[in-house]
Structure formats: structure tokens, C-alpha cells
Write a structure and sequence with these properties.
Blueprint lengths: L2 H22 L23 H5 L7 H15 L9 H26 L3
């Protein structure tokens, strides 16, 4: 094999690797938006009653009880000793729970 053939083979390998990485790379994640979220949805896009695990016709007391139970389970302070990934998951989940709770209480008070 000559030096020229080795060079062509290396360039081909590099080009092939580049093409494969472009084809199989996961899509970029969208930046979080500071705009208000769609009405009725939690951070993950689920309706507030599904996030809190209550019926859509739940009373304020039922909503409050579900919120406190879920937040005590997923509060980030309780995950301080866990891995970074688990702490981030707990933070996301607690934000989603809090958003759903606030939305539910606004709907129950009639304010939108």
C-alpha cells in the first residue's frame, strides 16, 4: 500500500465517521421558554389533574392534600444525597407539581 492510498483511506474513514455522526445524532434540545405555558398543562404537558393524581372535579382540599403528598415525595431537599441525575429529576418533578397546583388553585378560585 502506498502513502497516497493510506491517505485516501484515512480521509474516507474520517468522512464516513462524520456522515454517520450527523445522521445518528439526537436532535438538539429546545431552550426553556419564559413564556406562560399552555393553560391546563403541567411542565411536562400533562393536565394539572393528572400531574396531581386527582379528578378534574377535585375540591381545593383534595388538591392541596395531593400537592403536599407529592411534594413531600419529590422535594429536591430530600434528594440531596442522591446522584446529580436524580436531583435534577426531583427538581423537574417538583416544579411540575407546583405549576399544576398553582394552575388548579387559580381555576378553583375563578381567576385565570
Amino acid at each position: 500500500m502506498t502513502l497516497g492510498e493510506i491517505g485516501v483511506a484515512l480521509i474516507g474513514l474520517c468522512a464516513g465517521y462524520w456522515v454517520l455522526t450527523k445522521l445518528f445524532r439526537p436532535p438538539p434540545r429546545a431552550e426553556p421558554s419564559n413564556r406562560r405555558r399552555r393553560a391546563g398543562a403541567g411542565d411536562g404537558g400533562s393536565p394539572w389533574h393528572q400531574v396531581l393524581g386527582v379528578s378534574p372535579s377535585a375540591t381545593r382540599d383534595e388538591i392541596r392534600r395531593a400537592y403536599r403528598t407529592l411534594l413531600s415525595r419529590y422535594h429536591p431537599d430530600k434528594s440531596a444525597t442522591l446522584s446529580q441525575e436524580m436531583r435534577e429529576l426531583a427538581e423537574r418533578k417538583s416544579r411540575e407539581i407546583t405549576h399544576a397546583y398553582r394552575h388548579a388553585m387559580q381555576r378553583r378560585s375563578g381567576a385565570r
